[in-house]
């Protein structure tokens, strides 16, 4: 029986987990900072190297990681309802492919960082519109058609990325590869991603009971009064914007959008009223921890965080797949 | 009192295939209508048109005196319920949660299911012989149990008009009778209207007040079940000769 009380407890627990992940991200690194110092630094009471590192370096980066993890998990949860497939992923519809082409294209012609972000966002939206337009072609809107169109557009983007990589000069290759694998070391201000996450949740939550019905099939949802066509369009745009915002900020970090909603669903069920905020918090926490690991495991070297999420994600995914054959 | 469902000059096509043309009938409170026809004659399409989920090519449909466009999706969902064919469970869900989806049109945007909704859902589960199944995962149900769960969700919806697409699919004999008895009781006691697609002529004869036969190519026949269901019309309907047998007052049809 779904109740507000249970939802509140789940969200509270995950919010605490999120805060713990942020605290870890602020404390860990080549310069260890104590909890008391972190508190003082955040309140702006102290000067000095430790406070500077916490305020200027670790806090923005941790917030970016949290926001992007949350965005990817939210987009994943929405895509899974939209495609009615618990193993769908925000990248499956070619959104990250489009972003990669946009970003790498901008890097190739030597545009500054800001325009690389712009290129990624434009690419993501272009791929979204392309898939949306093609899949709607004959007015029907079947999951299979959408999925196949997305996969094909993603494959096309993959080819374009390979082309750019093969003609790019040596000195740009490393930056491109890091972008493709997802990297937070050049992350900009966390506020665009954080506000997108908040807006996305605020936009999705009023419709979360409608989404519960959409997950049970179009006819069932429509018979119970859900405006399915409008809802699906809205969900698609929202998931695409969330993915684009995340990919633009951090590059193509994989598996967060796939694994997190799936794990959360296994733990608390498929009620979108709880699942959407819970997945956002859990995704935020996961990417924050993963990024902290990525910059501390082989310090002073930094790993691209996408490599870590994939290393965690692939075995977890395969485990889930073999464990529950009915969802395949 | 006006009819629950009022159909006038209805024309329904699927592509080039004509399902019904010039169809008109009223479904009064407490009436049960059985739709019969061969596979592919458009029974599901007609039902979905009656549910307002699909535009008719021509004609009007009034649900409790109002057109679907005037009612809006939410109000319509409070008045009529649809049992679709086949149930897709892509995600895990418990039996109680699934029965509770029927409460959706009665809940506000921010409202959560309350005690009363839970009571209605549990009553509905008990009515279809699924009491005590509440915490079971829908994936673990058999085909017949899953079908009864879908009927329970429809009962929890408390519509005035029930539109059921093959409600007896996957059910064993005793549950077929139990479901038809349950629907008949709702019609008699609560005055709801029932429209159901059936493939069993003898059950239709016993549990429907009226029958609508879809012959294909737009030809239809609608009327009191006892008059419409004869060996002659049914033989024409199914393209296979049927013979009528009598046991006292009861009539039965068997394929020759």
Task: Give a description of the structure.
The complex is a heterodimer of chains A (328) and B (256). Chain A is mostly helical. Chain A has helices at 4-27, 35-42, 49-82, 95-108, 113-136, 143-167, 170-181, 191-204, 208-214, 218-223, 228-250, 256-268, 272-296, 305-323. Chain A has a single domain (4-327), classed as ABC transporter involved in vitamin B12 uptake, BtuC (Orthogonal Bundle). Chain A is 76% helix and 0% strand. In chain A, α3 (49-82) packs across α12 (256-268) and α5 (113-136) runs antiparallel to α11 (228-250). Chain A is globular, with a radius of gyration of 20 Å. The two termini of chain A are 26 Å apart. Chain B is globular, with a radius of gyration of 18 Å. In chain B, the strands form three sheets. In chain B, strands 6-7-8-3-9-10 form a six-stranded mixed sheet, sandwiched between helices. A four-stranded antiparallel sheet of chain B has the order 2-1-4-5. Chain B has one domain (5-255): P-loop containing nucleotide triphosphate hydrolases (Rossmann fold, 3-Layer(aba) Sandwich), CATH 3.40.50.300. Chain B has 256 residues and is an alpha/beta fold. Chain A binds chain B through residues 1-4, 84-86, 206, 209, 212-213, 215-217, 219-220, 222-227, 265-266, 269-271, 273, 326-327, and chain B through 48, 51, 53, 73-78, 81-82, 84, 87-94, 96-98, 100-102, 104-105, 107, 109-110, 112-113, 118, 139, 157.
